[in-house]
């Protein structure tokens, strides 16, 4: 094999260095390419859930027997939610108007617990009713005029948004 002259070796070395520098620069530029700009997103408006509670009429309550709590939840939002917890609401429990007029003032109705942990899915823009069994109590001291009454039981709910 023939040996390269000094001049050929110098040219080859210079070409190699230039080749490496150009390719290294191209590689650096490829990885450094970037950009900037602005974007925006608009958060949806969130509406409160509408909630109502009542003694479950299919299982009448009377002293010594636990009845059910029917909870209706309306979700006016454009996304589904999951109700996680039901607690007593801020207003007092009341009997229906006809039984109040008949003298049902001391009804002795209360919720069996301070918190009911649930997992109720409510689709977007819809309403559902759920029943919590054995959750409503009536005291022995209830007025006789309360017999057959349906009770409005204010409740509050805690819910989270759902992706399903």
Report what the structure shows.
This protein has two domains: 1-31; 50-161, Sandwich (Immunoglobulin-like). The protein contains two helices and nine strands; from the N terminus they run H-E-E-E-E-H-E-E-E-E-E. It has helices at 6-32, 97-101; strands spanning 50-55, 67-75, 81-88, 94-95, 109-111, 116-122, 126-138, 151-152, 155-161. The chain has a four-stranded antiparallel beta sheet, with no helix packed on it. The radius of gyration is 36 Å and the shape is rod-shaped.
Instruction: Write down the Rg.
Output: 36 Å
> How many strands?
9
Give the SSE string.
HEEEEHEEEEE
Straight-line N-to-C gap: 75 Å
- Helix count equals 2
Question: What is the class of the largest domain in the CATH system?
Answer: Mainly Beta
Outline, from the CA principal axes?
Answer: rod-shaped
What's the pLDDT, averaged over the residues? Answer: 83
Task: Please give the order of strands in the largest beta sheet.
Answer: 1-2-7-5
What CATH architecture of the largest domain do you see? Sandwich
Q: Which topology of the largest domain does CATH recognise?
A: Immunoglobulin-like
Q: What does this entry show, briefly?
A:
The chain is an alpha+beta fold.
Describe the SSE topology:
Blueprint: H1 6-32, E1 50-55, E2 67-75, E3 81-88, E4 94-95, H2 97-101, E5 109-111, E6 116-122, E7 126-138, E8 151-152, E9 155-161
Antiparallel strand pairs: 1-2, 2-7, 3-6, 3-9, 4-8, 5-7
């Amino acid at each position: 094999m023939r040996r390269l002259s000094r001049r050929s070796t110098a040219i080859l070395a210079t070409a190699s260095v230039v080749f490496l520098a150009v390719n290294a620069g191209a590689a650096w530029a490829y990885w450094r390419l970037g950009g900037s700009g602005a974007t925006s997103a608009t958060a949806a408006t969130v509406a409160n859930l509408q909630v109502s509670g009542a003694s479950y009429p299919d299982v009448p309550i009377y002293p010594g027997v636990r009845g059910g709590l029917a909870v209706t939840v309306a979700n006016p939002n454009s996304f589904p939610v999951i109700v996680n917890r039901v607690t007593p609401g801020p207003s007092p429990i009341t009997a229906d108007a006809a039984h109040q007029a008949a003298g049902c003032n001391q009804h002795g109705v209360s919720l069996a617990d301070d918190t009911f942990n649930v997992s109720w899915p409510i689709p977007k823009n819809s309403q559902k009713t759920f029943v919590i069994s054995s959750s409503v109590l009536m005291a022995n001291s209830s007025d006789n005029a309360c017999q057959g009454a349906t009770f409005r039981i204010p409740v509050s709910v805690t819910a989270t948004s759902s992706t399903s």
